[in-house]
Amino acid sequence: MRELSDLEVLILPGWRNSGPDHWHSHWEAAFPRFRRVQQRDWDAPRYADWALGLSQAVDQCQRPALLVAHSLGTALVARWAQEADARRVGGAFLVAPTDTDRFAGLPETAFHGFDPVPLRPLPFPSCVVASRNDERVSTERARAFAVAWGSRFIDAGHLGHIGSAARLGLWPQGLVWLGQFLATLPDQAGA
After folding, report:
1. Cα dihedral 114, 117, 121, 127 in deg (nearest 10)
2. Among residues 4, 145, 137, which one has the least CA distance to residue 64?
3. CATH number of the CATH domain containing 80
């Protein structure tokens, strides 16, 4: 079983970053060891740029990385894990996955290269947390991602896209789920 102190927590926001009312920002403020991965362009993300940012952040970790991703950040993790050296990742907590396949090719889509969503097992333990009324992914599709990735699935109820609009603050229930996920990680994951 892993302790939080055994890992370096990397916060991976989605499109347009996580603002001050987002649970990501609250967690980062409450836990100084949580570090946000800064991306080159939050408004018009390109997968190659974001993947490079993630690779650099993981390479800088002194301990195994725990990826805490939201929205487009989950698509980043799913794709990056198939292409990069993910041996230094101890696990991934993936909240509100965005179904990038739904948005591919639409003229208003501001992100590029995140589709198709890989449907292969992730090379590290993972957990998908999804809402029943998320406008960016259906519950069925989120469950399909979890099955394909080999992830534990958590039904978060009706929280929309589980972002700033949900007004979750510190999101205590999310912290409970994160703790439960940590308890399932083997001591040697990502070592």
Report:
1. 80
2. 4
3. 3.40.50.1820
Q: Nearest-CA neighbor of 23 among 38, 37, 9, 13?
A: 13
Residue 191 maps to a domain: no
Q: Is residue 46 part of a domain?
A: yes
Dihedral of alpha carbons 11, 93, 117, 23, sign: negative
Read off the pTM.
0.95
Q: Residue 38 is part of which domain span?
A: 4-184
Whether the ω angle into residue 125 lies within 30 degrees of 0, i.e. cis, is: no
Distance CA 56, CA 61 (A): 9
Residues 123 and 120: their CA atoms lie apart, in Å, by 9
Distances (CA, A) of 54 to 67, 69, 134, 140, 155: 10, 11, 25, 28, 27
Tens of pLDDT, residue by residue over 112-125, are 899 999 999 999 99
The number of distinct structural domains making up the chain is: 1
Instruction: Quick: pLDDT tens for 74-100.
Output: 999 999 999 999 999 999 999 999 999
Q: Which amino acid is at 102?
A: R
